[in-house]
Design goal:
Blueprint: H1 2-7, H2 11-34, H3 40-56, H4 58-82, H5 95-108
Helix pairs in contact: 2-3, 3-4, 3-5, 4-5
Length: 109
């Protein structure tokens, strides 16, 4: 992001991307600290994925988050349907869903 900004001096876009990324990472970090819903690996993924997507465009961030949440919901539904024992985990891996959202956000944005 910094190299791209240095080649085409648009420092305002870099600042906005870092601000949006920082606020979202702070929200996810607080969610991780206060609940057991978010794993720390998800916090790390959001830390690196969101600022890059935010540097593309604000629409890319919305697309990324929407696709990631829909994909995670789909994974959760599939896990619920395929559950055979009551000892199965209730956690939904957000990493693959976040990757799908990131790809969609960068390609659409």
């Amino acid at each position: 992001m910094v190299l791209d900004t240095a080649l085409s001096p648009d420092w305002q876009r870099l600042g906005a991307a870092l601000a949006v990324g920082g606020l979202t990472v702070l929200a996810v970090l607080l969610l991780w600290l206060s609940t057991r819903v978010v794993a720390f690996g998800d916090v790390v993924l959001v830390t690196f994925a969101l600022p890059v997507t935010a540097s593309v465009s604000p629409r890319a961030v919305g697309t990324m988050l929407l696709v990631a949440l829909v994909a995670a919901g789909g994974i959760g539904v599939v896990q619920r349907v395929r559950r055979t024992t009551s000892s199965a985990s209730d956690s939904v891996p957000f990493g693959p869903a976040l990757l799908a959202g990131w790809l969609a956000g960068v390609l659409v944005g």
